[in-house]
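Today's session is about reading a structure prediction critically. Students often jump straight to the picture, but the first step is always the sequence itself: look for stretches that repeat, for charged clusters, for runs of hydrophobic residues. Only then move on to the predicted structure, which in these notes is written as discrete structure tokens rather than atom positions. Here is the chain we will use throughout the hour.
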Amino acid sequence: MKIGAENKKQLRFMIVLLAILLLVGIYNFVDFGTSSAASPAPATSTQIAQSKKSGTAQIADNTLDPRLHVPELAASQNVKYEAGGRNIFNMEEVKIPQMQGSARQITEMGPPMPPTPTPTPPPPPIPLKFYGFASKGSEPKRIFLDDEGEVFVARQGDIVERKYKVIQINNTSVIIEDVLYSNRQTIQLTAK
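Below is the predicted structure for this chain, in token form.
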């Protein structure tokens, strides 16, 4: 069985047609970066209104008509601006509402006083109790502090309970600073 061997003219003609078809298909589906078609102009409100009235989609007119349309111009001149608010084309004074009371009463009262700032509450007291100290010859003094049954041993500069710093150690008192509130307090020696 020989396909196309009998009629070589028809075979060549079919190959040429397939090549042309292939070129046309490539040309239609591939974008070469240029477009010869002009983008359609946006539809105006009158065109939209006309298409809504007629119920059919109308084709947009892309041509510009330089002629003067006297009936359309006359119709637009007869339109009056009737908005509920202020007319931006007329210079009018805006009426200022009348104030309650006379100006003399308002000036006698003076400007309103600024609100008084609320005082900041005092920092909470330091709940530690000083029970005594211990010292050995060359070592610095250590103090014994109590906070609700929990005993702490600290030296000068140490921080107790992550918020109280021992500032100064005396024989009868200790100065402790609350690190969170920057509050210093002197705690006297307590007898047990």
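Discussion point for the tutorial: The chain has a mean pLDDT of 79.
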